[in-house]
Each structure stands twice: as C-alpha cells, then as structure tokens.
Amino acid sequence: MNSLKRVVIIGATSTIAEHTARQLVEKGASLYCIGRNPDKLQALLQDLKVRAGDNQRIDGCVADLLDVDRHDALIETAEQALGGMDAVLIAHGTLPDQQACQRDVALMRREVETNALSVISLLTLLGNRFEQQGAGVIAAIGSVAGNRGRQSNYVYGAAKGMVAIFLQGLRNRLAAHGVDVVTLKPGFVATPMTADFDRSGPLWAQPQDVARGIIKAMIHGRGETYLPGFWRWIMLVITHIPEPLFKRMTL
Amino acid sequence: MRAPQSWNRLPRVAPEKVLVLSQRSCALPSMAPRPLLPYGNGRSYGDVCLNDHGTLLVTRGLDRFIDFDPQTGLLRCEAGMTLAEVLALVVPQGWFLPSTPGTRQVTVGGAVANDVHGKNHHAVGSFGHHVRALELLRSDGEVITCGPGRADAWFAATVGGLGLTGLIRWVELQLMPIQTPWMWVESQRFANLEAFWPLNRRAEARWPYTVAWIDCLAKGKARGRGILLAGQHAPPQATPPSFKEGCKRVPIDPPLSLVNRLSLKVFNALYYRQPVKPQGGLSHYVPYFYPLDAIQDWNRIYGRRGFYQYQCVLPPEAAEAATAALLDTVARRGEGSFLAVLKTFGRKPSVGMLSFPRPGTTLALDFPNRGDKTLRLLDDLDAIVCEAGGALYPGKDARMPARLFQSGFPQWEAFSRFIDPAFSSRFWQRVTSGNE
C-alpha cells in the first residue's frame, strides 16, 4: 500500500486529473499541480484550496512541458513545496487530429513530442529521483489506443504505446527499489477532449469513476490498469486479431 | 451525445447542438447555432431548459469552488455545481443552504435562474434572497457582476430570469449556520382542507420549515386531508443517531406509467395512514429535504411518455377557495397526483422580476402524461388559477398558454429588455408568441 499524502500532478487541468486531484484532496493529500493554461490552473487551485483542510498544502505552477530543459527545475520546485514526493501522476496530453497529422509532418512530430517525448523525459528524471528515494509511485496516463495501431488514430496510439513500453521497462528497473510504476489505460471517457464524439454507448465512463480507479491503482501499485477494468478484455480481443484480418478492418 | 431532456421528459425535443462548457474563463461560442441557452443538470420540468432550434450550453463542467470562508459562511462557486456538491463541503463545517428545493441535484445556476424556494419560504424567502453576487457573461463578451446594491437591475432580471439574460458563470451565496446535520421534525395529520389552514398558520408561526402532503383523491368531507410536516435544524445531540445514505435506482423505462389510478389510490391512502410523530423526532437532513434523491432516475416510473408537473401560486385572499376548487377538480377526474404538496409562501417580496414565489399559497401536483385527457384537466385547473389571479411556475411548466404566463408575470415585457439577444428557450418562445 502506497501512501498518497504528497502528490505531484503534471497536466493537472485535464478533466481526469482534476477529478483525481479533488478525490486525493478529499483523502487528505497535499498537492502540487502543474498545468499549461494559467486560467485553468488558477481555477483548479482555487477549487482545491476550498476543498482542502488547514493542514493540507495546495500549490502549483504554470509550465509548458514541451520545454524539456525546465523539467528538472519543475520537479525540484514541486518536491520542495511539498517537502517530499510520495507519488507523481503524469496526465498531460492531447488528442491529435489523425487526418491532419497524415498531411503535416511537423504537426505529427509535435503531437509525438507532447504525448510521448515530454512524458518519457519527465519519467527519466522522476525514475532517478524515486530510485534514490527507494519508495513511492510513478503513474502515467496512457491509453487503450496504445495497444494496437489503428487507422483512425495511430499517431496518438504510437505515442501512447511508446509511453507504455517505456513505463514497462521503468517498472522492471524500479521494482527492486521499492518504487511502483503504474500505467493507466483509460478507455472512452466523457471529457472535453472527447466532446465531439457520440458518447451515448455503454463504453463511455465518467471522469469521476476513472479518477477513483487511478487512485486505487496508485495506492496498490498496480502495474497496468485498464479504466474501467473491462477494457482489458476488449483489448485482449483486439490485440489478438490476426494482422492479415486486422488490416482490412475499420476500427 | 444524447439530447439533454428535462426531468419530466416532456416535451421530447433535441437541440441543434450541445456544447459542454468546462472552464469559466471561456468565451461563449460565436459559431454555434443560435439561440443559446444554458442547461444545468436537467432538473426543471418542462421546457425552460430546452432549446430545440439552437445550442444548449451544458454547464455541469463549471463545477469548481472559488472561495469559502468557514467563519462567515460566504461561498463563491461556479454555476454548474450542484447543491449536493455544495452541501458535501459545507455541512461538515457547520453551514447549510438557507433556501433549498426538494432535490439536491439542481445546479446553483439553475437555482438562481428559477429562483427556487424551499419549505422555509415563509421564514427566509427564496434562493435569490441569499445570493450576494453573481457574474453574467453576455454574448457580446460583456461581463456583468451584479447583486444586491450592485447593478441591481441586472440582478433583478437574472434571479428567476430562466437563463435568458446571459450565462451565469459564478454565484456568491450567504450560507446559514447549523449545529448538526440533523433535523427535528414533527408531523401531524389533518382531516381535510378546512383543518389545514389554522394548523398551518400555527405551524408557520413556530417552525422555520413547514410543508403539507395532500391526498388529492380524497373527496367530500375528507377533501384535502393530509399530513403537515414541520421541522427545524436540531441542536447538538448527546448521542447522534447514525445515518448512511443508500441509493436505489429505477433501472428501466416501464412501457406504461406505474403511476395510475389504482397505484395512486393505494399510495395516497397508505401515505395518509403512515404513523405520524406529533411529539417530534430526529431526521437526517438528506431524507428530510431530499426524499426523492434516494431513488436515482425516479422520473422513469411515469414511463416513456413522461409526466406533467403543475405548480401554481394563489393570492392570499383567493387561496382557500381556489385550493378547494383545484382539489375538487382533480379528485373528480380521478386523475390524482402522486403526491400533492401544499405550502404557503411568506410576505417577503422576491428579488427577481420573473420570480415565482409571492405571498399566497402554492400547490404542486404531478400527472402522468395521458395525452389530451391530461391536457384538458390542466386547462380546467388553469381556469381556476386565472380566476384567482394566480400564476404557474415556469420551471415546472411544459404547456401553459401565453396569456396565463403574461397575466401571472406582469413584468415580462420589462424583463425582456434584459434578455441577451443571442439567448432564448423553447419556453420563452412559447409564452411570448403572438405578441411580436
């Protein structure tokens, strides 16, 4: 069981991260929240401060995570603000326009920067810190899209897949040091990122429920967690469709 | 996304577009089909929250606290937050909503826009009386902060303004201190409507919260029989009872309404015979204020065709006779309502130009939708309300004729100057048509 008393959330203004933050605060955690948009971050911090008790610290800062050179200083600031780190949740990301990425190499690369390279840069630094400290949880939000490339969103899928494999390796490395590395794989979640989809089916989950699953997975140090859990079985089927057949399918 | 509905599932119309708002700092959409209309948590009955030719701005994502001072009880939060979310934060810190409707599932913005009221209207007024400030975003980008003593005209238009004056981004509320989450409740049976009035007058003088449930199928000498519930916030208890909130839900839409002549008769008779507590007893605030919140999706029991709510207010001088006439009409048709609720409003003038609460008696009824038959009954009830000089509650209406709205809300034309030119609703188009 991991303690989640001092948690750093990177990409904290995403809807899933925001609900996770609220629930962590309700459980008594102190938080350091990093987000890109100053208005969103301010609204988030105000809200969390109202929800928090007097002995909980709520702090944060604005940062562009594509600025990789700043990562180490960011982590340092966060750790000092909280007086240590029990856990980190990396939640930032975008949902690329696949069609646009097919036409525009620069855009495609930028999406990979955001969704994969900035994440594994942070993971590299965090991995070393947590290895030193010999305890704690590192969690990152991937996606079921990272399990198999599909024509409808393989730029996103490739980036999330890279993160998942990186996390797998990091988990393997840090297991001996008492550090849990958690890969979170949400399915369809009703957030602003997916506002343009038809969300009426039974596969759509609410961000509050996904947030609850994230916290549970972090507390128990689960390796790879599908949110909600039934996605494990859906993805098991999808990854086992033979490639000659899969390549003709439209998913 | 499934088209947002109103709680009584009538009328069934879909907007052109649904936009989910998630940040209070965002501008209103400039490209979306107009008119625009904010949609909170879909708890109003009828079409004040529907906009079939335009865009619904779903506000539930505006669910953040902005500031709360546990010393003074002043709370500022975004308008899409539900009263349940507010209570979860403030009750453990010794504060309560000074005015609350019968469900916690409404948004704060919706509570302002409908100027909702509670069982304590006679003591404290309605929701709008406790709003200290609010921020309005207009479609031209103008931001108006208004409240008592600050842009008063905008405040009077927006409280009870049915979401038409612009998007309410946040609301500042003065909460009320409580000592415990418990209520002290007394209930008393009364044999008929004649017995209700003196009993109610005495109860109102003594208790901050009063409401009566009426068996609207009872006829003759028993007409208007029911139970009067009076309550107040309880002082600290030596050994507080335990309370665990359960939640059941109605899992499916029954093909026919489960509320029918037979079930109504049985239910109303049993309800009247329930044990009353004339000496009083403790009740947790959740079942006391929000009995129906314990059954998720309870609106499904009326089946796919939905139901009509009918809530009127009758001026004091006409109230006794008109209430009797309304109950007679309902009982005669045997169309009875599941639970009829009777309450008298206090004399405090409402804040809003279109606020529903006003001195007099309010009667709330609901009827399963049986098409023309139900509509004819409601027309007959309209005639009684109109004759008495009363009004119907816009937040619970799906069918009132334009002239009844206009006679009940004489300030509607003055109000219409404050409507955002890009905003409208199906309700507003319906009750103002034929005048343009």
Automatic annotation (TrEMBL), chain A:
Keywords: Oxidoreductase. GO terms for cellular component: membrane. The keyword Cell membrane does not apply. InterPro entries: NAD(P)-bd_dom_sf, SDR_fam. One of its GO terms (molecular function) is oxidoreductase activity. Belongs to the short-chain dehydrogenases/reductases (SDR) family. This is Short-subunit dehydrogenase. It comes from Halomonas cerina.
